[in-house]
Amino acid sequence: MGAAILVVGGARGLEDGANRPAPRDAHLLIFEAQRTLGLNQADMGALVGVSKRTAQRWSSRRSPIYPHHLTAAAAHVHAHDAASRRSSQRPPGRRSRA
Question: How many domains does the chain divide into?
Answer without folding.
Answer: 1
